[in-house]
């Protein structure tokens, strides 16, 4: 049997579904049109999904990293998270918060945390779906749960994460943050809400996605307008340790 051919249009359709519309029926209709049949769409759809096992770079069993699931105080409730530190750490280390996409705290984000640990950081990947019981195995369900989160409480949980790392015995008291997709937006909000965090939020946007975002009311925040980015230093608390902004081309990330 010939291997199914995946086109860029199919990838774009899946990208729009997972990051913007969250409408699986519409995605399958579009995929059916692209493949020529419902049977073809059913075969292609699972192949488009991310494979955490294949994408893993630092194994959970890697002896160079000590990683564990933890809980810590959030805003009004307990937060779950994944903490990774270098196994050979000598002395206190700076900390970094790894904020997940709209899929929640999945194996890929945990892998990113382990990678950060090997770069010399105490890395904590919070589960921002903790108030709803935690990230489910079903990514579609996770996306629905992300959309139902209380925005103010979520930002409060991010600020609480900074405070937790700031007082953690393994850290220097300094914490930064990186985020991906939905998490990138959360880093921007954290930059404004927390006077002590040092946020770094790479946001990669194609021209096509700008158009997609304008069409989507529910997910209009999937990119940060240039005007908002330009004004962010002024919005940050005056006590922020570093209010500079730096842009990167996607090839540099």
Architecture overview:
The chain has 253 residues and is α/β, with parallel strands linked by helices. The chain folds into two domains: 8-53, no CATH class; 54-204, Alpha/Beta hydrolase fold, catalytic domain (Rossmann fold, 3-Layer(aba) Sandwich). 43% of the residues lie in helices and 17% in strands. The chain has ten helices and six strands, in the order ααααβββαβααβαβαα. It has a six-stranded mixed β-sheet with strand order 1-2-4-3-5-6. Helix 1 (8-21) packs antiparallel against helix 2, helix 2 crosses helix 3 (38-48) and helix 7 packs across helix 8. The radius of gyration is 19 Å and the shape is globular.
Which radius of gyration do the C-alpha atoms yield? 19 Å
- SS content category: alpha/beta
Helix content: 40-55%
Give the CATH class of the largest domain. Answer: Alpha Beta
CATH topology of the largest domain: Rossmann fold
Largest beta sheet: what is the strand line-up?
1-2-4-3-5-6
Largest sheet: 6 strands, mixed
CATH architecture annotation of the largest domain: 3-Layer(aba) Sandwich
Total DSSP helices? 10
Order of helices and strands: HHHHEEEHEHHEHEHH
Shape: globular
Tell me the count of domains.
2
Question: Which residue ranges are poorly predicted, with pLDDT under 50 across at least 5 consecutive positions?
Answer: 201-223, 243-253
Distance between the termini: 38 Å
DSSP strand tally? 6
**Portion in beta strands:** 15-25%
Name of the CATH homologous superfamily of the largest domain: Alpha/Beta hydrolase fold, catalytic domain
Mean pLDDT value: 79
